[in-house]
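Render this sequence as a predicted structure.
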Amino acid sequence: MPVRFHPNNPVDSLESIILKKDGSPLHGEIDIYRKLWTDLKVSDIEWDVWHDLKLPEHSDNFNYYKKTSAQIDFLILCKYGLLVLEVKGGPISTKNNTFYYGRDFNTPMKQNPFKQAEGYKYTLKDNTLNNFKNCFFCEATAFPHVDYPFESKLIDSNLLWSKLTASNFENSIEKFLINAIEYSKNKHKKHFRNYKEVSLRECVAIKKILSPIISDRNKLNTINTLEWLGIQNIEILEGLYKNPRIMIEGPPGSGKTTIAKAFIDKQYNKNGIYLCWNNLLMHYNKSILNQRNLASNVEVTTFFRFFKRLNPNYSFNELSSMSEDDFYDLVKSTIYRLEEEDKLIPFDFIVIDEAQDFLDRGLDVFINKFSGFNNQGLKNGNSLILYDIDQSYSMSGRNVAGIADLMTEYYSHFKISEVKRSAQNPEIRKFSSEVLENPKTISSQAFEKDYSQIKVFQHKTLQEVKKHILKNILTPIRETDSSLIGKDCVLLIESTFLKGNYKGGEDLRELLIVKDVEELDENNISDTANKLRYTSILKYKGLEKKNVFLVISKPSELNKYEIFIGLTRAILNVEISIVKS
């Protein structure tokens, strides 16, 4: 028989077997179970299907919802690979980056089903089946009762089975599964990953492992983070892994930049490049390297600036407005042109800071060609990648997490979970994590009790915000006997209020034309004058201050990542001003 189910339930009795907690039939999973059985039993290839597969733990990687265990609706194995299928029955809708049960937006889902399936995929890949390096893992989602289209970046139609999309596959769920696997493989091919068919021996081994009770037999001990961050150079890491290609994943304030400095210190007299995402971080890092007399050998720039220099016919606006795929193509065409002109000279080493923001813009191609020898920098180059998936665009549909995982095939990968920044005020760390899951927490009645050290002020207008800033922040900074010093403070403003389109054109940039208040830029990033400096939250990404003052709109799904980034810039204290719309 071409398909085997685990467990093998009688297809005619599923309504009494596959049940919700209240005992009623789970029609979405029942319909998919029957569809899989009907279509796969006449297939030309062998299939194995696990239903309601429970895993006792969840991988820390890509665990978007901080789960401690995993329960997979359907896990499907064939010679082309393994596919996790997440099923949601009934009508489904989307609004403002959130999924809802029904079509009236009254019942939000706790989890994005596409991200849920992706997390389960990595649990299998990282923990349960982590010895099967040649097996391809992917995921898809099924809305079996939805017969209408979606207009949302949250949904990839190539990975969705529904009543509407079924016609694209001649109503064959087998064709959908094979297409989903091939579609996912094709996305990997441009990142130099190709997968062979799963061998019969591997299929047998996988089936032996996927039993009802699964344990992680290959759990590795992690390096003590405090010891790691205390190192003076990178020799300890090289001694551990003998690998000059290192990826460090960690939350804001976990010490990634400390490792970057140690890495650069080790590259004495070598020519390198330090790529940043934004201008302020670039200029700050330049000043640090100047202090250490390293700037002459290291080019510090942004990804956009680097390719602007190589493509002078493009403006910054044109480059910044390019889609991820368009920029990826620009990277490839630029490299091709340099190779044709014999002008491509690899760097001795590469450091990439905040890499999560441009992983899908051709970063892997850049590393491969601009480091190492024989255009094989991913395999023989010398590079350090620093990134944080929580600060990435993966939740908005971009394939950042998947590319990061692919890159780990070429790198020694370390994940730091301990945060040194804001260690003296753990409420900041606690709230920054909470705001990603529930941005409306700040409006709850329990907020003041739970976060007594975080001050929150409500304002009706930007004029009120200005008065608050002048009275409660700038005045203490100006006072000679005050403990509040300008160099220890930064005012971070949500981009909405710096675009000139709030309340008919008014914005805080105009309102803050005040003595001793300056917009942060490349000229004063390292200045210690006793002034209050401000910038947008996103421009300050990668930097930090003892005291952070945030100006934000009402917290929601739309601005929660900006709030998260702002909160995680604070070392000691954070104060929040909310402008009611």
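Summary. The first strand starts at residue 3 and ends at 6. The chain has three domains: 3-209, 225-415, 426-579.
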